[in-house]
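Problem: given the chain below (353 residues), write out its structure.
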Amino acid sequence: RRPGADGEITLGLLADPNLPHQVAKAVARRLRPELEQHFHIPARWNLAVECDRFPADERGPEVGEAARERKKDEGWDLVVCVTDLPRHDGRRPVIVDVDIDGGIALVSLPALGAMSLKNRTLRGLLRVVAELLSRGSSAPSISGAERVDPEEQGVDVRFIARGPRAYLRLFAGMVRANRPWSLARRLYKVLVAALGTGAYVIVNQGIWMLSSYLDALRLGMATMLSIGLMVAWIIADHDLWEKSDGLFPRSRTRLYNAVTVATLTIGIAVLYVALFFVLLMGASFVIDIELMREVTGPTVDGASYLRLAWLGASMATIAGALGSSLENDDEIREAAYGYRQRARMERHHKSRG
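Solution.
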C-alpha cells in the first residue's frame, strides 16, 4: 500500500541482535518527533522495533529478501534494517542502501564509526526515510557520506563513506559493535584464575623486593607484555584467527583479524585495570606498612603499594590465560567477525535447505 494512504505511516526498524538492536531501540524513542518535524505529512507515524539476525550477505540481496518478507508479514509501510555487518562497494565502506520502490533500506552501523553513534544513526534514519519518501531535501545529510546511484539491482540510492578516515571509522565501528567491555565481563573464569594468582603474588615477600626495584618504564613494559600474551593465547586457544581460505576476500580477512585483536586487547585491558584496583585494595588492607619496611627497607610509602599491585596484575594476567581455556568457545568467538559471519552462513544455508 502507499505510505500514508490510510492516515498513518508504519516504519519498521528491523535490527540485528546486540548493539544494532540497542541502538535501534534508543533511537526510536527520539525518531517520531524528528520525523514529524522534518516531514510535514498529514499522517501519523507509527514505529515498530524488532530484533532478527540477518543472513550473511555483504552485498544486500539476501537481506533485502528477508526484509521484504518481514515487511509484508508485519504490514509495515517502510522498513529499515540496522545491521552490524560491514559492507563494501569495492574498497569503500557502504553506510546505507535504499530500495525506493520496495520501501526498504539497509543501514550498516560500523561505517558510522564508534563516536556519537546514536546521533549519527538518528540523522542517517532521517535521511533514509527522506529518500524512501522521495523527499531527500527534507532531511539532514549523512555525515561523511557521498550519495551515489549504483548500477545494482534492488538498490536505487547508496551512501558511501568518503574521506581519508572512512576506513578508520569503519574499523572503530566494528570494534564497538564487538562490545569489548562485554567480553571483559564474560571472561569471569579468567578473572578467577588471575585473582587467585594475584592473591598469592601480593603476599609473597620476594615479589615485594622485586617490585621495589622496578621503575614505571619496566612495569609498563610488563603490562604490555602480559596483555599481549593473554590476547595471543586466547586467539590461538579458541581458534579466532581468520585464515585466507577463499570464503572472504583477503582484505576482509585482514580487517576481521585486526578488529579481533583490537577487541581482545581492549577487553583484556579492562580486566587488567579491574585486577590492578582489586590487588591494590587487597595489598593496602592485608599488608602492614611496617612489615613491608622490614623486608624492603625504610623507603616504603604509598607508591610501594602501587608498584606491588602493578606487578601483581601483570603476573596474574599471564596466569589468567590458563583460565581462558575453560571459557565457552562460542562466547569468546563472538569477538571474531569472521566467526559470526560463518555462523550466519551456516544458519542461512540450513534455513534454505
